[in-house]
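Bug #77: duplicate submission created two jobs. Keeping one. Sequence:
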Amino acid sequence: MKRNIALLLSIVLILSVFSVCAYAQEEDKYAPEKFSDEEYEAGFSFKYVNVLLKNEYSFQEFAPEMLNGELIGEIEEPYTFNPENTNYSKDTYQHFLILHLAEPTKENVLELYKQMKNCEYVDVAEIGLIDTYMPVYPDSPDEIGCYEGNYSPWIEPDNENYSGNMLFNPYYKLYYNELLEQSVATYNRFAEYITDVDYISYFAENYMNSDKNYVTLIFNEAETDSINTHNRAILNKYFSEEEILYIGDTVFAAVVCINKEYANKITQIDELAFIGDAFFADSSYRMSLCVTGQYALGDVIGEKSAMDADTENTVTAADARYILRYSAGLETVESELKRFYYCADMNFDGEIDASDARLALRTSAQLEQEYTIIFGYSYMWSDGIVWEESK
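Kept job's structure:
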């Protein structure tokens, strides 16, 4: 995300100070801040707004009346300027304040935050986000950025059958509704705060530069007897059947593939409310069951670790037998869903059948190359379904 360097440094300062302030409470300054159910649901604290004053106003005292006497109950100054500290210059120093709400409610903290963003004394204002970043009244679309999905692991060594992503894996064929619900839930957390920012055009220009772009489209809600029928009617106006991957049955959303040369197509969709990477999820869902960030293709049981230096071959005959029993309807998968479906489709044809079991067996006997599914970081494994499993 492209940002002014000074603004970025200011925000970093606020967040670093906030991480300290969150532990400061009257009864025990090291006790973690406690949040109400309403605050967790909103995603931010109702108790305060953090601000950095402009340099020219950083050396005068601020009474609540100078900012907003009705909403502010107390102004906390956790740090003061120390002229003996050579890390600071009076010419550039910006004073940090915590504005505590007189009456901490969602409506009041949002109103104070909006006022501080437009206050003549304030350079940067930040709301007290709890567990993950979300855009609250962004001034520009680049503050929203891109909400990403995690469906493109590396396969090493190179496998000629791998297309570069897992979007046609049985995992998505089975759980697309649940995953789309997570995308819609992520969007709904901040939907009311985006206001008039033209995010759709910005996304088309900045995040659709690949030859094929896999995206989740979230449509405006409507009264309908069938969500799927409504979604399909919208999609049929703008996309061919080849471009449509998944159509939501329970939410107004779908996943499509758009070629780079047709990126501006999304700006023509009147029904489009938001767009993100395919099956994007909130970063708070990044509670990974894949601790190492990698698995061996075919390793569906996990008797051996792909990171075990003493293990010559990770895939075993037991894995092959499990895949075969699943393909025959004799086994069901109830946990580590993503791991099973990613690792069981050995030939990447979108099906799990006897041919995959045969490849797993040959891999266990070292008659086939063993391939490793790798995510750069373990959190990249996570999505809404993985998070639900881990709760």
